[in-house]
Design goal:
The chain is of the alpha+beta class. The chain has four helices and four strands, in the order αααββαββ. A hairpin with a 5-residue loop joins strand 3 and strand 4. It is elongated, with a radius of gyration of 45 Å.
Length: 195
């Protein structure tokens, strides 16, 4: 036997079907309204962000123009004079803060008996290191070599080189030594023959 529904209305519970269709329609309508609201909100925020970006671009362009005008208006000669004055001021400050006592204590601790110091000249090089030039007089070249080695071994000096050597009328060797000096907070103890 074959069962078929020959009724003109196939649903026996039309109210349930209408409620389900109505709920689906309301859900679709609510979701559509939510999407439209989100789209409107995002469009408004996008427009605001575009306006803000345009403002920032305009401000950046104005700052670039101002920077270019500032670069053009800088007086290079005046700037060089200011830099030279700052260099001189730094040299004076270095001279005031240079510890002569520490330097001479190092010399006293390393100076051999046959060597005399006749001149000392500290200066700063381009790398801001202290370069100390020491003029010495000795009877023997070995004494000068011993002084150079002692300066490097006791610390505080490195790259000590003899720049100029000559013999005077009395047979003394006059030498100009130059080396990199690294000052420290405390001078090395003196090892001279004093009690």
């Amino acid at each position: 036997m074959q069962r078929t529904n020959l009724a003109t209305r196939p649903f026996y519970n039309e109210r349930l079907a209408a409620i389900i269709v109505g709920l689906l329609a309301v859900a679709v309508l609510v979701l559509t309204l939510a999407n439209v609201a989100a789209l409107a909100s995002l469009s408004g925020r996008g427009a605001a962000l575009r306006d803000e970006t345009a403002e920032h671009d305009a401000r950046a362009a104005a700052l670039r123009r101002e920077a270019q005008q500032a670069r053009v208006s800088v007086d290079r000669d005046h700037l060089a004079q200011v830099a030279e004055a700052a260099h001189e001021a730094n040299a004076l400050i270095d001279g005031r803060t240079f510890s002569w006592t520490e330097l001479f204590n190092r010399f006293e601790a390393t100076l051999p008996a046959g060597v005399r110091i006749t001149g000392v000249q500290p200066r700063r090089d381009d790398n801001q290191r202290f370069i100390v030039t020491v003029s010495v007089v000795a009877r023997e070249v070995d004494e000068v070599d011993a002084f150079m080695e002692a300066l490097e071994e006791r610390g505080g000096f490195h790259d000590v080189l003899a720049r100029r050597e000559q013999v005077d009328e009395e047979g003394f060797i006059e030498t100009s030594l130059s080396g990199v000096y690294v000052p420290t907070a405390a001078a090395p103890p003196a090892t001279g023959g004093q009690p």
